[in-house]
Amino acid sequence: xxxxxxxxxxxxxxxxxVEVLAQLGMQPVIATRAPLExxxxxxxxxxxYLNRESVDAAVGTVDAVVHSAILNDFNVMxxxxxxxxxxxxxxxxxxxxxxxxKPFVFISTDWVMDGTGHMVPEDEPPNPLNIYGVLKAxxxxxxxxxxxxxxxxxxxxxxxxHRLADQGPRQQDCGFGFFVTTMIEQxxxxxxxxxxIDDNVNMVASPSHATEIGAIIHRMIEREAEGTFHLMANExxxxxxxxxxxxxxxxxxxxxxxxxxxPPEGVFPAAVPRDTSLDCTQTRSILELDSYSVSDYLHMLxxxxxxxxxxxxxxx
Length: 316
Prior knowledge:
By secondary structure, this protein is of the alpha/beta class. The protein has ten helices and eleven strands. The mean pLDDT is 92.
């Protein structure tokens, strides 16, 4: 049984990755910056990502590494560039070096693109607009500099419900993620929900599903895949179009969905890529994956919210 170190394993994406890897026969080990409760359901190890000895010790006990940890505060990134660089780039360097002879999966983002393309392929060079995209692009370069067993998993507009918390870090932001589950909950209670439509907002994307991210990463590790992969639906969709499709799938009233500008507290402090849709044709071919639509992902989300169980579409 492969032991896999997952950084950010208590976060939104990471909590799905941990659970799916376990379902598919791997043994996840969560890397955490601070101690967790002893009755926590998964094995964990405390790691200082900026301390090479600490990283080496943790990586030395596993067979592969999935690096999903991020600094999830854009204002901190803007105002403390050194801390942001260390949190993203130096941590990736230390983990990648420690895992030099092991599969290493770096979770990146569609925000490494500038938003002027559409259905961008895997081999398109990054051209980020803001510091988050820049730091993720730097992380991608760290992985590309590895001699072997390095892979980049780009994701975006992620669907899913946090496995270890009542809700994700935000109910809606200028990115493409997070708002769908909040909207479903609001509409289910008969409340209106306003989808942000504005100039500096991510308006088009190819959504990922957190459960599928875990299942595809499992396949990447099993096959020791190398290169850049796009882990998302096989199509693009607009922000309002996604909201209306989600309402249809969940049997909720579209009349409760409105659109409006970003409120002052939600304004992003830098430029936002408008169209971050990514093509995943090469990914599906290399990893031998079936093709899934946004509707497929939404129906999977519906089953998960009804049952509480993760059932990835991509099997072992």
